[in-house]
Amino acid sequence: MTFNPFSLEGKKILVTGASSGIGQETAISCSRMGAEMIISGRNAERLNQTFSNLVRSGQQNHVQVTADLLIQTELENLVSQLEKIDGLVLCAGIANTKPFQFCTPEKFKQIFETNFFSTIELLRILYKKKKITDGGSIVIISSVSANRSDFGNGMYGATKAALNSMMRYCANEFAIKKIRINTVMPGMVWTPLIKSDIITSEQYQEDMKKYPLKRYGQPEDVANGVIYLLSDASTWVTGTTLIIDGGLSLG
Ligand SMILES: NC(=O)c1ccc[n+]([C@@H]2O[C@H](COP(=O)([O-])OP(=O)(O)OC[C@H]3O[C@@H](n4cnc5c(N)ncnc54)[C@H](OP(=O)(O)O)[C@@H]3O)[C@@H](O)[C@H]2O)c1
User: Fold this and answer.
1) What is the whole-number distance in angstroms between the Cα of residue 3 and the centre of ligand 1?
2) Which tens digits make up the pLDDT trace of 12-23?
3) Which of 225, 222, 153 is nearest to 187 (CA)?
């Protein structure tokens, strides 16, 4: 057998937000690396598309669970469908770009409910119910926006900064069980989340010039970083943020 420290063979991994974009690609890539997947998303039709694209070789018995994580009963139903998992990728999220003067408490509440509270609540329940195997690995999809000041991105960035902070506290607390937790901070990645009718392709081209590597990311650029953090190649890595942004953060 070939030595591969990034293999996910024998691991059961739950990915939220698997019906689209980064979560979809992460789920498919993890299955390609040998993991048995539990995938979740709101949109049943798109989740099913991901499900049919999961790689099946050997003993991989994948499962899909439709769940809106804002609905407590659906979140609990997702948890109840799981036995023990070795990996968890918390990817579900939304964006909302607005100048600060239009960031009302309702808008803050809406984005924090999805990006922060439902993510953390799912993590809390899984940890409390001991559904994460000792030695398991958790990856939260944060964003470089947590550390930036791009116009109109404040609410979104604040949700991601909150996730980075919570991740560090959990890393300390979970270490007793050798459970690791890290965040991945992508720059702009081509997914439905960033597609806008208002932004022209010239504006996208202009924005990409800010990236030293002169392009936005593809979902697989992020998925590959997630695989590293889920795999045994990173067993001494916890409480950290992995920036994947084509060099944008170099400034
Ligand atoms: N794309 C980027 O440039 C970028 C950069 C940095 C970080 N990120 C982060 O990466 C993650 C994935 O984003 P993406 O770009 O892949 O976006 P996407 O293509 O829009 O996918 C978002 C996913 O989140 C799910 N979701 C949203 N609200 C949910 C809820 N209440 N309950 C359950 N699932 C919910 C969606 O489910 P449905 O399919 O049912 O809607 C979908 O699967 C997000 O956390 C995002 O903040 C993205």
Assistant:
1) 33
2) 999 999 999 999
3) 222
Q: Other CB atoms closer than 10 Å to residue 125's CB: what's the count?
A: 16
Report d(CA 109, CA 134) in Å as an integer: 34
Q: What residue ranges do the domains of the chain occupy?
A: 12-240
Residues whose CB is less than 8 angstroms from the CB of residue 140 and which lie 6 or more positions away in sequence, other chains included: 90, 119, 123, 163, 167, 181, 182, 183, 184
Q: What residue owns the CA closest to ligand 1's atom 14?
A: 21
- Residue to probe by mutation, ligand 1, list 15, 16, 20, 29, most atoms within 8 Å of CB: 20
Closest CA to 204 of 195, 213, 212: 195
For residue 211, the SS3 value is coil
Catalytic residue among 156, 204, 211, 216: 156
Question: CB of 33 within 8 A of CB of 101?
Answer: no
Q: Could you report the per-residue pLDDT of 184-193, keeping only the tens digit for each?
A: 999 999 999 9
Nearest to 194 by CA among 156, 231, 162, 227: 156
* pLDDT tens track for 63-91: 999 999 999 999 999 999 999 999 999 99
> CATH says 12-240 is which class?
alpha beta
Q: Which residues of 157-167 are buried (b: 16+ CB within 10 A; e: fewer)?
A: bbbbbbbbebb
